[in-house]
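Hi there. Long-time user, first ticket. I'm pasting a complex I've been working with (about 854 residues overall). I'd like to know whether the download I got is complete or cut off, because the file seemed smaller than I expected. Thanks.
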Amino acid sequence: MLNIPVIRWGKPYESLEVDEVLHFSTGEPIAKVSQANGGIIARDMRQAKKARQILRDIPCTEIIELLKKAADLYENESLPIGDGSQSPDQFAHQQSASTGLPEHMCRQNMAKNSFVLRNMQKILDCLTRGLDLNILTRGYGIEHRGVVVSYQAQTSVLSAVLPSNSPGVHTLWLPAIPLQMGLVLKPGPQEPWTPYRMMAAFTEAGIPKEVFALYPGGPEAGAAVLAASERAMIFGGTATVEQYRGNPRVQAHGPGFAKILLADDVVDDWEKYLDLMVESITINSGRGCINCSGVWASRHTKEIARAIADKIGPIEVKPPTDPQAGLAAFTVPGMGKAVWLMIEADLKEDGVTDMTEQFGPRLVEQERCSYLRPMVVHCDSPEREIANKEYMFPFSTVVECPEDQLVAKIGPTLVCTGITNNEKLIGDLTAASHIDRLNIGPIPTSKLNWLQPHEGSIIDFLFRARAYQVTQEAQAAL
Amino acid sequence: MSTAESSAASLEAREKEAQASLDAHTHEIVQWHFHESTGSPFWLQKRSELSFDPLTEVKCYHDMKKFPPFEDDWLRGGPMSRWVPKGFEGKPVYVFETGGTTGIPKSRMVIEDHWTDYELFSDTLPDQYFPRGANWLMLGPSGPRRLRLAVEHLAQFRGGINFCVDLDPRWVVKLIKKGWMEHLEAYKKHCIDQALTILTAGHDIKCLFATPKLLEGLCNALEEQGKSFPDTGITGIFSGGTEFTPQWTRFCIEEYFGGPPDVSGIYMTPTYGNTLMGLACSKPVTAADDYKITYYAPQPRAVIEVVGFDDDQQAVGYGETGRVKLTTLTKEFFVPGFLERDEGERERPFETYPWDGVSGVRPFHGFAAQTTVGVY
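Hi, the file is complete. Here it is re-exported in full:
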C-alpha cells in the first residue's frame, strides 16, 4: 500500500492524520494519504511568492517545452508517488478503484490531460490572443501592434480545491505552471492520483519541485486553501457556485446543465443527431459538467426521448476493468440511493415520463457501492421540476418547448449545442449571457476545443490588463 | 517481585482505591440530590417518575446504570431555580449556557463548581511554564459561557490577573452556516487584533487560554508581523476541544513554538470538557508518543466512560472505539450518564489517573456531518 505525504513546496510531510483510500468494491486499502491541517496551509501560503519567483527565472517557452516532456512521462512512464512508484496502468487501476470510474475512462482522461500539456503553446497563444508570453513574465511590454500593454499578475500561485468525481477537471489548472504561477492543490479525497502524478511528471521533466504544494485533507484544508489564496478554483454543487458568485478571488465550477437544442428547421431530421445526443449524455459515464443533461425541441420530443432511451436504457453495470464498462459507481455509501429517491420524487409529476422504465430498475446496489443505469426522462413542458436537473450519471431530460421560448427557458448552461441554421436563433443564442460555451451546429457538448476558454479565460482570472505608460524613449527601447 | 510486577500491583491498588472513593462519592451525591431537604426541585420531581428509589438503591457507581439516559433538552428553558438544590438555597447562582445559535440554549446553574474545577485543574499545571503570579490572556468565548469566569478564577487562584477579549461563538456559527467566510475571517481578525493589542500593552502576560483556531490565528498574525509566538513571552498555554488533535499539537510545537517545552520554553496542554462536566486533563503529550492526547476526568466529581454505539450501558474494550458518556457528580449539579457529541478510544488507567480515560476524541460519526466544529 502506498503512503502519500502532504507536499509543502516540494517537500514531503507525513502527517499524524492519515486518510485511507479504499477500493470501492472490495474495501481493500489502496493508499494512506497524509492529511494537512489548516494551519500548515495558512503558514505555507505566506511563502507563495517564491513559487512565482522561481518560475519567472525559467522562460515560458522553456517551460512549455518541459511540459511536452511531462506529457509523455505522465502518459507513458512509471513515476514516483509517495513511498512507491506508479505505472500508467497502475494509475488507471488506482484511480478507477477509488473513484468508481471504469479503467478505460481513466485512460481516456489521461490522454486528455497529456493532450493539453502537449498543446500548451497553442492553447496559451489562443487564450492570450497571441500575446508574447514574456509580457506576462515581465508584467509589461510592447505588443506586435506597437502598443505598450501591461498584464499584472494578481497572484503568485493558482490554487484549486478539486473534486473526487471527475478526473476531467484537471485540464483547467494545467496552464498555471507555464504562466509561471505556482500550484496549490487540495485533491479530492478519493482522487489524489492525478495531482500527485502530474506533479511527478512535471518535476521529472525539470520543473522545480518547490513550486508545488499538495494538501490532501478534509473540509478544513479546502477552506484554508481558499482563505489563503488570491486566486483559487473550487469545484462543487450549485450552492458552492452561489457562495462564491461575484468573488473575484474564486472561480467556482459547478454543475454544467449542458444542453442540446434542436431548432424547428432541423428537428424533423432529429434521427441524424441521435448518436451525437447519446455521446453527449453518456461519455465519461455522464459525470462531467459538459455532459448533456437536457435535449430541448418544440416537437418530436417523445420520439427523440424514446430513441435515446432505446440506445442507453439497456446499458448494464459492468466491472471497472471491463473495456466495455459504461457506468461509474457511486462510491460514497448511500449516494446512489439518495439520488434515485430524488429522481423518483420528480417522476411523480404530471407531464413527466420515465422513458427508460421498460429497461429494468435503474438503481443497482452492491455491497460497497451503487450504480444508476442511464435515464431519459421526457418533460412535456420546461415548467416540470425535473426539466433542469443534472445528476452524476448518464441522465438527460428531453424537454418540449416552443422555439421562441428556448433561449429564455433553458436557464444557466455551461455548454449549449444549438443545432440550427436559423440566423435569428443563432443571434439570440450568441447574445444569451447565461450560456457559457456555445456550439453552433452538430457538435457534441462533450467535445471541447482546448483553444477556447472554459468558464472564463484563465488569463483574465490570473492577470489584470491595465494602463502602463512609458516615455517614447523608453518605449523605443522595449 | 519484579519492578514491573510491583508497579502493576501498585496501580491495581490505586485503581481499587479510586473506585472505592467513586462509589462513596456517588452515594453521597445521590443522597444529596434526591433527599427532600437538600435536593433540587428537578431531581425531586424525577424521583417520583423513576422505577427505583435512588436513595435506597444507588449504593455505588455501578448503580448509576439504573438511571435512564440524561436528556440534554431538560436543560433548555426555565425556571433555572428548578436546578438549584434546596441545600444551597439563598446562595448566589451563576448560569452558564451552551449551544443556542438558534433556539433556546442549554443552561446550567453553578455556584462554585467552576472555581473548584479550575482549582483542581490548576494543580496539574507545571509552575515552570505557568508561573504563580503570572498574568493571563483568555482568548476564547465570552458572554454566557463558563470559560470567561473560570479562566479568570484560574488566573486569580494562581495569583495573577486575567485579560480577555469578547468573542461570540453563536455569531461565528451563523457565519459558517451562511457561508460568509470573509466575514468569518474578519471577525477572527477582530478578535486576534484585540489579543495583539493586549499582548503589546505591557501587561506581562505569561499564560494563555485560547481555542485552537484562535491560537493558530494569533501565531499567524504574529508571523505576518515578522514576529513569532515566543516573542510574546507566553510560556504556558491551555486549549481544548476536538480540534486539539495530535497533528495540530505537533504542528504548533514544531512550527509555531520552536520545539518541545525543554527547547522552546513553551508548554501547551490540552483539556476536554464542557459546561456540564468539569475539566478533563490530558496525560503529558510527547513526540515519542506521537502526540497522543488522552483525557482523564476529574474523578470522582465527574466520570468519563467510553460506551458502545449500540449499547450505552456497556463500556467498550480498552483501545476500542465508542461514544463518550459523561457523568457529573457534584453537590451543585447531577448529570447521570450524558451521551456526549463525541467519540474516542477507551484508555487504561495509569498512576496519575487510576481510572479509565479516552483518547482520539472527535465528533461522533453519527453527528459529524451536521456538527459545525471549530467555531472560534
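A couple of notes from our side: Chain A touches chain B through 17 residues (CB under 8 Å). Residues 60-76 of chain A form the longest helix (17 residues).
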